[in-house]
Amino acid sequence: MESNAAIELSKHVLLTFGAILAVGSFSGLLASKFKVPDVVVFLLAGLLVGPGMLGWVDIKADSAINQLILIFGSCYILFDGGATLRLKVLKEVWITIVVLATMGVLIATAITGAAAYAILGQPLIVALLLGATIASTDPATLVPVFKQVRIKDRVAQTVMSESAFNDAMGAIITFAILGIAMGQAEFSAGDALLDLLKQSGIGIVTGAVLGYLAAILIAHEKWNFLAEYSPVVTLMAVIGAYMAADGLHSSGFMAVFVFGIVLGNKDVFGFEMEGKEEERLEEYILTTSLIMRMFIFILLGSQVNFDLMAKYLLPGLAVVAIFMLVARPATVFACALSDRRAKWSLKEMLFMCWTRETGVIPGALAGMLVGMKAPGADIIASVTFIAILTTILIQATTTKWLAGKLGLLVEDNSFQQ
After folding, report:
1. Which helix (DSSP H) or strand (DSSP E) does residue 25 occupy?
2. Which of 193, 194, 199 is nearest to 245 (CA)?
3. Distance in angstroms (rounded) separating the CA atoms of residues 410 and 208
4. How far apart are CA 150 and CA 134, in angstroms?
5. pLDDT per residue as tens digits for the range 164-219
6. How many domains does the chain have?
7. Is residue 198 part of a domain?
């Protein structure tokens, strides 16, 4: 009987995966036809096929399958994003990235928390918990957007790098505030800073070591005996980087991002692949990233709780408006202006003010708070989903238009500085 139940469950999961791939393929065609980022159409498709409407896809947010897809999908998209970055450009803007990923998260948390306190009438600690949950940007959204919309190199790489590096800070602040809210801890700025340095440092080292090792195995002149299996090596290393960093109680997402940076810049370390092998690897990464985007955003859309959102819709939209139009600009101008070496122009900073989609990581944090029965978890989850839908549907769809207006688009197929 148990065996039959397991088989039926497997068939149901297989059918659901097939539906996601079919809906995702059709959605991708629509996105290409209407020239909008595919994550937007995937999210809308998820809303349509979820249990709230057609009911074709019903995978619970707290299920093991969903967590597996979110973790691996986010890791692979982060790896892909890291592989597109160039060390030469990052050297020019690293100060901005570091400040945005640390102080920027604190600024966004404080301003959004104050707005939630005033508008939602929640206790200050709950309002700050909400601010921290949605303060970090989303690499799973931003990386594919910048893959499809070619933006001036240093702007795109700064925003993508910020989105990868600020996840650790967002999680640290969220759980530090949660500890206070649940009466389990007192906030210590020193402890939080040490925790951030530990998570970041171990994640960076882990990703760099595995990235260098992978480059040796697939591109070294003498030791490239796994060059033929380069797609498998990258797949294995992405999983290994995340699990190794996570096992060391550091940021797994940071590890896979740095792994991508090192492997994507293997030529800097003197490693080169044959043209045919390089092309095959790029095609594999492109296809795998597309599939991961389909699964992540269709599932994310299918899990939106319409009843919960409706309950806090208007005040939630007001908080998200302040989050987008006040907190983000304040964050960008405060952080970018402090980096005098980068010499950011007003147009570049205005673009960064608008580009800060909320997505998988804040959604996962909100889900964890609900599961832990944190104070105000329902309202935090509601506003988080409002932020996800609003920022992806409005900001992601207008990225190319705004970049064009500000003169930041790159017209050809290669990045420029």
Report:
1. helix 2-34
2. 199
3. 30
4. 26
5. 778 777 877 887 788 787 775 555 666 766 776 787 788 889 999 999 998 888 88
6. 1
7. no
Are 285 and 80 spatial neighbours (Cβ–Cβ below 8 Å)? Answer: yes
For the record, the structure tokens of 337 come out as 């202006």
pLDDT of residue 375: 87
What's the domain range around 22?
5-63+86-184+264-405
222 phi, psi to nearest 5 deg: -110, -30
H helices of 312-359, in order, are 313-322, 328-336, 346-354
Residue from 354, 335, 357 nearest 405 by CA: 354
Residue 193 lies in a domain: no
Tens of pLDDT along 350-365?
999 998 888 777 877 7
Q: Is the pTM of this model over 0.85?
A: no
Does 381 reside within a domain?
yes
β-pair partners for 151: 409
End-to-end CA distance of the chain: 62
Distance, CA of 197 to CA of 53 (rounded, Å): 44
Assign residue 166 the CATH number of its domain.
1.20.1530.20
Is 257 inside a domain boundary?
no
Instruction: Please identify which residue in the block is written with the tokens 């590096």.
Output: 165
Alpha helices, H only, 121-152: 124-133, 139-148
| Rounded Cα gap, residues 291 and 65, in angstroms | 15
The span from the CA of 144 to the CA of 37, in Å, is 8
Q: Which residue's entry shows tokens 């060390």?
A: 87
pLDDT at 413: 45
User: What's 273's DSSP letter?
Assistant: -
- Token pair 């692979």 is found at 76
What does residue 393 show for φ and ψ, rounded to 5 degrees? -70, -30
